[in-house]
Amino acid sequence: MPFYPDSETLYDVVKELFHRLEETPGATTEFARSRMVIDVHLTEPEAYINLNARTNPVSFRFEPDGTPPDLTLTMSADTLHNVWMGKTRLRDAFFRGRIRTKGSISRAMQLAPLFRQAEALYPQVLKDKGLIID
Q1: Which of 38, 73, 77, 85 has the fewest C-beta atoms under 10 angstroms from its C-beta?
Q2: Quick one: pLDDT band at residue 91, thresholds 50, 70, 90?
Q3: What is the mean pLDDT of residues 98-109?
Q4: How many CB atoms lie within 10 A of CB 63?
Q5: What pairs with residue 61 in β-bridges?
Q6: Of 106, 120, 125, the residue nearest 11 (C-alpha)
Q7: Could you tell me if residue 130 is left (phi over 0), alpha (psi between -120 and 50 degrees) or otherwise beta?
Q8: What distance lies between CA 90 and its chain's CA centroid?
Q9: What does the pLDDT read at residue 121?
Q10: Residue 57: which residues within 8 A CB-CB, separation 6 or more?
Q11: For the domain 7-125, what is the CATH code?
Q12: How far is Cα of residue 29 from the mean position of the Cα atoms in its chain?
């Protein structure tokens, strides 16, 4: 059974997580240096995230804005959940085929610092939303 019961719950958590990333000094600095636009397509449930390091500050959108991505990632919401919970390493998810890429996988690894920052905040977001209990 998937962790997220529906897209609405997933978006609620992801939007709060990215809001906290924006508010955390230095959390997006390394990603900003990449100057990449990344589209993330999630399945089970369906969701879309656009990470744009060409804007200052870095922007996170949840609907396509027409900007062509440098990289597109497709994965299940459970894969993303497990990466952010520290249960699956990002590199392992890529190399085991749990994350499909359209674009350079080496460029995809530039997401690692941003994902590490997300890992630090994600469990607390889930707790605050009542989705996990200590």
Answers
A1: 85
A2: confident
A3: 85
A4: 7
A5: 50
A6: 125
A7: left
A8: 11
A9: 97
A10: 22, 28, 32
A11: 3.30.1050.10
A12: 15
